[in-house]
Amino acid sequence: MKTAVITGAAGGIGYATVEKFVSEGYSVVAMDLMPAEAAAEKMAKFGDKVTYFVGDLSNAESRQGLVDTAYSVLGHVDALVNVAGVAPRQRNDILATTEESYDWVMGINTKGTFFLTQLFANKMIEQEIHDGIRGFIVNIASMSSYTSSTNRGEYCISKAAVSMVTTLFADRLAEYGILVNEIRPGIIATGMTEKVQAKYDNLIFNQGILPIKRWGQPEDIAKAVYVLCSGDLGYTTGQAIDVDGGFHIQRL
Length: 252
Prior knowledge:
This protein is an alpha/beta fold.
């Protein structure tokens, strides 16, 4: 039985990733902040293939609870996919960023991702190795890992830090056969971007910011995540893959 833990599972990218993994035969423990009653309808389509866990990534007890639930339900974890993340509640110029906003974004996006990865890494190390691999970890970083947005600096900082989390764990866990990589999504049609849809519509369709002139979809990210966890890239770790319509290409 192939198994995965996916955080941020009720949101656009997370939910699409759950769908993809279930379609590929995985049993999944899916975590999100959304109350179980609200998430029940979304998760019902998966039947017993998905166990939903209500948890807060920024909370140590929630993180440990997710690990305990995952190993109790699944027995082992082939893949951890760290999707959960937040944008600032309010976009502010970096000259006006508040400590409260900084701490909230960093607490979930960076601290939560780091310590959840640490917990699962220590459990994966104990698992049996198959074809040289004990497990896969994929972090969802962002084009904001390397792109300046001065009206949401705390988000950019948090995602740049997630990229270093990927590098550090890739380095540390390679000897155990645990491969750690990341996806850097571009402009993806999710709840996080719908508030600024007009801005991105203009950038994509009028200003030509993307070589591939369309919005990215959550399914675009989910497919890339699955490839990294499939075992087909078994000689790849510490890699960041840009799924961004070509945004990262420097053009004249």
